[in-house]
Amino acid sequence: MSLNKQKITALGGGVGASKLLLGLYEVMDPAVLTIIVNTGDDIMLHGLKICPDLDIVTYTLAGIVDPAKGWGIREDTFHALKKLAVYGRADWFNLGDQDLATHIHRSALLEEGKTLSEIAESIRTALGVKTRILPMSDNPVPTIIESNEGAMHFQKYLVKRRAEPVVVGIRFAGVEQAQPAPGVLEAIREAGRIFICPSNPFISIGPILAVPGVRQQLRSRKRDVFAVCPIVGGKSLKGPSDKMLAQLGYEATALGVAKLYADFTGTFVIDPVDRRQARAIEELGMKAAILPTVMKTRAQKRKLAQALLEL
Ligand code: FO1
Question: C or N terminus of the chain, fewer CB within 10 Å?
Fold first, then answer.
């Protein structure tokens, strides 16, 4: 089978993952790509179900994401949020007017009895995205951060408290009872290659791995699992991964992430600046591949995607 026709499955969170996902979307046949997205970040606000990572991935592939922020819709306005604040509602989570249409639509469909995966499918199709986008689970599995300020929802930690509390633990509420969404295990089982996007290992990839059956399915495909490291030169490519690794007692290095993924990853992809860690990574029982992983431009996104397909 030609390389760009083999089925590819990618696991990821929001902004960090979307860079690689856009690259893949553009260099391969998008119809044979399946994306499994973290839903631990999902939150109920103003009576609406907000799914940040699903929306970030969908908006990015639809070409409508706000390019500066990496989330929300380009050139969106915030009139509704200002009015919600007048009514005394919390306005720390910036929901744009156009973005709100997605949340209203999704919440109405949930109320009508549709599942999150059916809704994700309808939204991506309506926005012209040619790739299947699967939530990790149709069951709510909110990520709860245990911190020096107590337990709080992940979005409160990240957005309201700007990742300032010291993280002492992370849990995914209800994950033991959650089931993988329809198609998730099959997508891992049937793909020629599986990519772990350069997302936060604890709060973007961690929740997906915690859904019963997912980590085991990945282990059975270890040889074909390629993970792109989200830490470059000891710093996160995006978000608080480096800080979280250190606060939870792990090394904030490529090797530190490699240790978290060693049981299910066949090839761990690191940036050239971390090449000296390659040998220690290989001692964990994985191949180490060295590729430029910093994706600022569209060309860099496409280049990494193409290189991953050809490794
Ligand atoms: N991130 C922020 O830092 N501040 C926000 O106000 C914010 C609003 C928001 C609205 C819709 C959406 O889909 C995402 C939004 N994000 C915001 C991003 C989101 O909190 C995180 O980037 C992801 O959950 C992490 O993957």
Answer: N
